[in-house]
Design goal:
The protein is mostly helical and about 325 residues long. It contains ten helices and no strands. The radius of gyration is 30 Å and the shape is globular.
C-alpha cells in the first residue's frame, strides 16, 4: 500500500493539468468567439466548466484518500453528476440535430440550453443532497454519535440508537441504488439509445446510400465518434457508481484500491472530453491557434512598445545634440 499513493498521485497530476488546461481553454474559446456560440457549444462550455471543477475536486480526493484522511464525497458526486447529465444533454441534442433537424432549428436556442443547464444543476443538487447524511460522520443517525438526553436510561438510549442506526442503514442503502439508477443506468440508456438511433439513421434510413466515397467516409467517421463516446462514458463512469457498493460491502484494503482506480478513470474521462468534443473539430483548433497567437502577439507588442519608448528617448537626445552642433556651426560662419 505504500507504493499505491505515489503511483496514483503521479498519474493524477498530468491528468489534472490536462483536464484543467483543456477545459479552461474550451470555455475561453467558446466565450470569446460569438461565431461558435450555439446550442451545441453552450452545452460543451458548461460541460467544460463542470469537468474543470470535477478535475480539481477529484485530485484533492485522491490526495486525501492516499493519505488516509477522512473526507466527504459530496463535491465529487455533484460534479460527477453534472458532467454526466451534460454528456446526456449533448447526446439528446445531437439526436434532434441529425434525426429531426427542423425541430432542432426551430427550438434549440441558446436560451433553451441555459434553461436546461439550470435544470441540470438543480436536479444534481437534489440528487446529491443525500450525501450530506451518508457521508457525515457526525450525523445524529449514526450509533456512535447519537445524542444523549438527560433523564434517559441506558436501555432507552440503546433502543433509540439501534432504531436510528437501522434507519440510517436503510437510507444509505436506498440512496446508493438511487444514485446508481439516476447517475449511471438511466444516463447510459439515454446515451446508447440516442447514438444508436443516429448511427442506424445515418446508414440505413437515408435515401442517399454510401455510393460516394466522401459520404461513406463521413458516415464512418460519425459512427466511430459516437461509438468512442459511448464506450468512454461506460468505461470511465461505471466504476465510479460501483464505488459506493464496494465501500459498503468490501473490506478496507480493496476499498481504497477501488476508490483510487475509479477516481483515476473518472479523471481520465474529464481529460478526454475536451479532445473528443472540441479539439477534434478543425474550426475549433483554428480558434485555439488564433487565441494563443494573439496572446503571444500581445506579449511581443508590449516588449516592442517598451523598446520603442527607449529608442525614441535616445533618438530625441541625439536630435538635440545635432541641433546644438548645427547652431554652433551657423554662429561660427556668421562670425
Amino acid at each position: 500500500m505504500e507504493a499505491l499513493p505515489v503511483v496514483t498521485s503521479g498519474i493524477s497530476i498530468p491528468l489534472l493539468l490536462f483536464t484543467v488546461f483543456g477545459n479552461f481553454l474550451v470555455f475561453v474559446v467558446i466565450t470569446k468567439n460569438k461565431k461558435l456560440q450555439n446550442a451545441n457549444t453552450c452545452l460543451i462550455s458548461n460541460l467544460a466548466w463542470s469537468d474543470f471543477g470535477f478535475g480539481v475536486v477529484t485530485f484533492l480526493d485522491i490526495i486525501l484518500i492516499s493519505n488516509s484522511v477522512p473526507h466527504s464525497s459530496l463535491q465529487f458526486v455533484m460534479n460527477a453528476l453534472a458532467s454526466i447529465y451534460f454528456l446526456v444533454s449533448l447526446a439528446v441534442e445531437r439526436y434532434f440535430a441529425i434525426l429531426k433537424p427542423f425541430v432542432h432549428l426551430k427550438r434549440a436556442s441558446t436560451s433553451l440550453m441555459w434553461k436546461v443547464t439550470l435544470a441540470i444543476w438543480i436536479w444534481v443538487g437534489i440528487l446529491s443532497a443525500g450525501g450530506y447524511i451518508v457521508d457525515s460522520e457526525s450525523s445524529p443517525y449514526c450509533c456512535e454519535n447519537a445524542p444523549i438526553m438527560n433523564g434517559t436510561s441506558n436501555l432507552q438510549l440503546a433502543n433509540v440508537t439501534t432504531g436510528a442506526a437501522a434507519w440510517f442503514e436503510i437510507f444509505s442503502a436506498i440512496y446508493i441504488f438511487v444514485l446508481l439508477a439516476f447517475g449511471l443506468v438511466l444516463p447510459s440508456a439515454v446515451i446508447i439509445f440516442c447514438y444508436s438511433r443516429v448511427i442506424y439513421h445515418v446508414w440505413f434510413n437515408t435515401e442517399d446510400r454510401a455510393t460516394n466515397l466522401a459520404v461513406f467516409k463521413s458516415r464512418r467517421k460519425l459512427t466511430k465518434l459516437f461509438v468512442i463516446l459511448t464506450i468512454t462514458f461506460l468505461f470511465t463512469w461505471t466504476p465510479t457508481f460501483g464505488r459506493p457498493i464496494v465501500e459498503r460491502f468490501g473490506n478496507g484494503e480493496n476499498t481504497t484500491k477501488y476508490q483510487l482506480f475509479s477516481m483515476l478513470l473518472a479523471l481520465f474521462g474529464s481529460a478526454a472530453n475536451p479532445v473528443v468534443y472540441s479539439f477534434r473539430c478543425p474550426r475549433f483548433r483554428q480558434e485555439v491557434v488564433k487565441l494563443l497567437s494573439c496572446c503571444c502577439c500581445k506579449r511581443k507588442r508590449s516588449r516592442n512598445g517598451n523598446n520603442f519608448f527607449v529608442t525614441k528617448s535616445i533618438s530625441l537626445k541625439e536630435t538635440k545634440k545635432e541641433r546644438s552642433v548645427v547652431e554652433l556651426v551657423s554662429i561660427s560662419f556668421r562670425a
